[in-house]
Amino acid sequence: MYGPDIFYVFFVIEIAFNLLGLITTVDHGTHATISVEFHDKLTQRGYHFTDNNHYSMACLGMNGALFAAASVDGNPSTVFYKTSDNWATKSEWQVYLPDGEDATCKDHGGAGWKFY
User: What angle do CA 31, 34, 38 make, to 5 degrees?
Assistant: First the structure.
């Protein structure tokens, strides 16, 4: 239980925003919480999940969201995709980049997802 002398400060950081919706993260120290919200709530349902990789980049598309984190403290750079479809089971994938490679920026164009 939280005592009266203990204050917890959490910052909400926006990591993606476009005409489809908004992706935010809240850092809790040991982990973060990612929230995906859509502007059109009639056609898309928002969701949130626990983020142990501390994703710092994201991109929101019609079919899903792509997240990435740079390598930190010996942990490899990570790229994670999660679909927006509610009917698909196990509709996500994750890739760890080789040592010496980092995801530094992302692009979602008409040709698909790209990380550099």
Answer: 175
22 pLDDT more than 70: yes
Cα 113 to chain centroid distance, Å, stands at 14
Rg of the chain's alpha carbons, rounded to an integer? 15
Q: Which amino acid is at 97?
A: L
What's the mean pLDDT when you consider all of the chain?
80
Contact between residue 68 and residue 57 where contact means Cβ atoms under 8 Å apart: yes
Using CB atoms within 10 Å of the CB of residue 83, give its burial: 0 to 12 exposed, 13 to 18 middle, 19+ buried.
Answer: middle
Other beta carbons within 10 Å of 25: 22
Q: Is 21 helix (H, G, I), strand (E, B) or coil?
A: strand
Is 35 in a helix, a strand, or coil?
strand
Pairing status of strand 78-83 against strand 47-51: unpaired
pLDDT digits (tens, 9 = 90+) for 62-103: 888 889 988 888 889 999 988 877 665 667 889 999 988 888
Domain boundaries, the chain: 12-115
